[in-house]
């Protein structure tokens, strides 16, 4: 499907152009571990780089099938679109700032980007783990977050530079969520991203799917935390839910009412966490 036409299957994807654009953007905006040499022991940074290199080599060996390579490239572009248009087209709200994490935090901590909100009440942060799943199975990623909650933990980003506050270094206890879409939705987004500018994406329906996923997870993980004696974590998700709902309402005021177009990933996702 595409968000404009849910019955339309998207077969052709402009991947060479999209992949080139995505990799150029990530090279420019990804957090650079070398920028933290005054905070961390250079040997520790080199150790983290070695870990990244080893894991990337392992992924390369395991993903030898052509369809796996194509799926991974599609996921890479989707993540970049969320990062790029999430800020340029204000998908997370006008006072949201997105920080692309380092390769270490992406691979080790499972956090692709951090969304910061510069609110009158103070800075709020949402650690967003971007996920494209073609089997509509997010069990492993949700279970990881639940295990962290059971351990009294939230998201951690080792290499972090705030866009709205004087904070640089490691941040911890950041509420973590998953964002996803089905394969046809992503293919449609990829094609649009190659052809269109951010003014086109400002009213794109996927932003409301993202808000819905995030708010639903805040409720889900807050309830899970309370059921397991983690009240502080539950309160962190409750606070983030208020920030998200406020920004969602603002977006509707700016771009029009939610058209309530959701893809098959969203349908399965809702059924899973209910």
Low-confidence runs of at least 5 consecutive residues: none
**Into which percentage range does the β-strand content fall?**
5-15%
Give the topology string: H per helix, E per strand.
HHHEHEEHEEEHHHHH
Class by alpha and beta content: alpha+beta
Q: First CA to last CA: what distance?
A: 24 Å
Number of helices: 10
| Biggest sheet, spatial arrangement of strands | 1-2-3-6
Radius of gyration equals 18 Å
Proportion in helices: 55-70%
The biggest beta sheet, please? 4 strands, mixed
Gross morphology is: globular
- Average of the residue pLDDT scores: 90
| Quaternary class | single chain
* Extended strand count: 6
Report on the architecture of this protein:
The protein has 274 residues and is an alpha+beta fold. The protein has ten helices and six strands, in the order αααβαββαβββααααα. It has a four-stranded mixed β-sheet with strand order 1-2-3-6. The protein has a two-stranded antiparallel sheet with strand order 4-5. A hairpin with a 2-residue loop joins strand 2 and strand 3. It is globular, with a radius of gyration of 18 Å. The model has no long low-confidence stretch (mean pLDDT 90).
Describe the structure concisely for a colleague.
This protein is about 55% helix and about 15% strand.
